[in-house]
Amino acid sequence: MPYIAKAPAANATKASAKIAAKAAQAMLRVLRLLGQAGAYGIAGEAGVIVVVAQRAGVSVRTGQFLEAELSVLLAQDWAAWDRAGPSGRQRLHLTSAGKAHLARAGSGEADPFLAQHLPLQAREAAPGERIVLHDEAESPLAWLARRKDRHGRSFVDASCLEAGERLRRDLTMGSMLPRISANWSAAVSSGARSFGPAEATDRMIAARQRARAALKAVGPDFADLLIDVCGFLKGLELIEREYGWPVRSGKIALELGLRQLCRHYGLQTQARGPDHAPMRHWMMGDVIAGHERATSPA
Q: How far is CA 213 from CA 24, 163, 207, 220, 231, in A?
């Protein structure tokens, strides 16, 4: 039986796999361009699709791709042409199928279909700890941080968000919140379903100490509110009903409490120095604490 060489077929398979990987990577780049907030595509010159997105209320060109890649988007129903805009030209937008495919493709190590329906973000469990996935939709602070007011500012800035998330980590790591279900992390045979003093680790004790210090610093007026928002993840509408507050007053109280928490943690939105540099003159060496130093005659 004659020997049949299989090396050319294997090389062809590898080459086709590389081509397919490059095509998928290029298509993912196009999907990310069109997946930006307020982005759309318009037909340009020389067979190019130009992508435009909104930046601070101004339309800015953010990228481009070829019409050959557009045919794949249209065939897969990932994008579609909308009616003509104010300029009289049609606009290209991602469809719901295209947004779902983009969410699955950018899931990373997470489950693709889980990332399609949940806004997952990779974060450190604690400073210097391993990277874990967080569901941004479950945190009221993260939801408020994504909302903008009429001036374009976030309802919760970066420093307040970090302070609230830091308190949330300490409350969770310290097991300071009561359980509403059974503790399935413990062995069934051991019969232990709750953490007692013997099960508390050094990390849990340190987290409890940090949380108690933070709540003591903000005072009793804001401690309960921060525990409900950062610990129990209650929304502001629910808190206003439970506390009997007027509508939209919870956001003001939450902002005041988070500012107190930022001062405790030493967090600021921006670094600020003195208004001006201290004045210096040629007699600076002979002046101490505002008084002239006596010098011996030459």
A: 51, 13, 10, 12, 15
Question: Which residue matches tokens 């992390």?
Answer: 185
Q: List CB contacts of 139: < 8 A, sequence separation 6 or more.
A: 165, 168, 233
pLDDT digits (tens, 9 = 90+) for 173-204: 888 887 655 555 554 444 444 455 555 688 88
The alpha carbon torsion through 243, 247, 253, 258 (nearest 10 deg) reads 110
Read off the DSSP letter of residue 34: H
Instruction: Please give the average per-residue pLDDT across 120-132, as a whole number.
Output: 62
Amino acid code (one letter) for 182:
A
Pairing of strands 40-43, 291-292: unpaired
In the prediction, which pLDDT does 263 show?
A: 92
Model pTM? 0.53
Position 273 scores a pLDDT of: 61
Which residues lie below 8 Å from residue 101, measured CB to CB, with a gap of 6+? 31, 76, 78
Q: Are 44 and 50 in contact (CB under 8 A)?
A: yes
The b-or-e profile of 79-103 (16+ CB within 10 A means b, else e) is bebeeeeeeeebbbebeeebbbbbb
